[in-house]
Amino acid sequence: MKPRIAPAGNFPARESLSKALRAAKQIDPSPDGTPQSALLRSIADCFDGREVVLTSSATEALFLVFSELKRLEGRNRIFLSAYNCPELVTAAVNAGLAVHLLDTHEKTLEPDLRPLQQERDLSDAVLVLTNLYGIPNSGALPESLLHSQNLRIVDDGAQLFGGRRGENIQLLDRSLHFSVLSFGRGKGICGVGGGAIGFPRNISAEQSRLDQKAGPARSEFKDRVRYALARLFEHPSRYAFPSSMPFLNIGDTVFHPELQRGQLSQFQALVALARFQEEAAAASTFVRNARLWHEIMRTVGRGVLEQPFANREFGFGGDVVPIRYPLILSRALDDQTVSAIRAGLFASRLGMSGSYPGTLADLCPGAVTVRGSLEGASSIANRVVTLPVHAYVSEDT
Fold it and tell me: 164: helix, coil or strand?
């Protein structure tokens, strides 16, 4: 049994966009109905009727949440795992919050919460859960933090699959906390950008006075071009092309001292809505292929790698849906062997990739404060391999 490349993808096909456009008129039949309004209603249903606001990106959504938590509650520090997307730091710094980094556990990708638990007063603090590769982090929270009346939690669902919240539905009291979604490339709702905020029940969008319309409107034409390019390069055998052409700006996640803001385009909303409507079928594919990788790696990778999904004892029943399948190569392997394994997987054209090339301390120098050792996060950055779980991977018998 070995993986092979199959002709399918993670972005919605053009015919899916046509279906979504027709569905949008049914979801919001009012004269003012648009893909944006239909997407808004669809997401609100997943957030149990809570208020939802759409944004031009998940980074902007996080920026708005952090800004409001600072204004409304005096929150001025955030805590997050050091192995993470640097755009989190972009959002926090632009909102005027200090960023404190927690180490990341190698075997499970969970944040090391001990420095946070040692804090005497969390009334000015925000904990950001980033759910790497689709692994919900709320299961790692001790009761003292999960139900703390002082700590605010932001559930960054950018890497959780679609509208599914899996374990987070039961464990994270979302009536008390903000949630954020992303519609970016490679996310659970895979699209050409955009994001959403789910509000706690005790804070309304009107009360928060979110400045949603700062920045210019996005170009519908450019978003259509980005969609065409993304579809062109989404096949694993073509991953090397955008990597060799950085001017395409496909998949870059870097720290920006200044946040570029804008307004969600109707085409962005249409692509996200199309993917949202295909969630159930896509989730089944993602889970099936994650199970395939798990079975293969359990045999060939014994003793030389860690499987965070398996180590967290998540099954493959569909409640938790990986958006990629991460593997952590053992520290017992020397750097030369790690490089050789990565090169071999990349040459196989199966869609292997690394991930963030360093910790947030490495990627955002001078913009973060380190809380203790970041040994685990550094090891993950040097030794992580992620494998695709969307429809390009299937079982060759």
Answer: coil
